[in-house]
Design a protein that fits this description.
Blueprint: E1 60-62, H1 68-78, E2 83-85, H2 91-105, H3 109-112, E3 124-126, E4 142-144, H4 150-156
Parallel strand pairs: 1-2
Antiparallel strand pairs: 3-4
Amino acid sequence: MPSRPSLVVKEQPRLIHHPRKNHDLDFQSLKELPDSFAWSSFGDSCSVESGIFGSDTVPVISLDDPKAQQYIGLACKSWGVFQVTNHGIQKSLLDDIEAAGKSLFSLPVHQKLKAARVSGGVTGYGPARISSFFPKRMWSEGFTILGSPLDHARQLWPNDYKKFW
């Protein structure tokens, strides 16, 4: 019997209730930014440490660099994000992934909602899963896919799902 992935959360330090948390994410129909998405400032949540990276841009780390592991640790601590180069992944594969992502997110909202994440679920279409930890909503949409994307692809493209699989 195949096992299903599970999400284990040890602590939820700041769970914020959003009354319309699971509303349709129809970004194209809005004429102005809803107040629930407006962040007045970054406050303490966004700090840039200078030092090894020495700029205000996302760190770019070459996996060919002998200190790559150290740099990744520093980037995680100071930025929470970084770009990796010299990873050995063929450009054609990256181009295919980018095209699949564009195809996926350009679908109309009603189509994407066919693969919506169910309440309490881990996979599917919906807002960022971390959004409940913040006082304001995030202007983003996403698909969380664990394992094979086949089930979600069939929901989104019933007649042409193999291009995404």
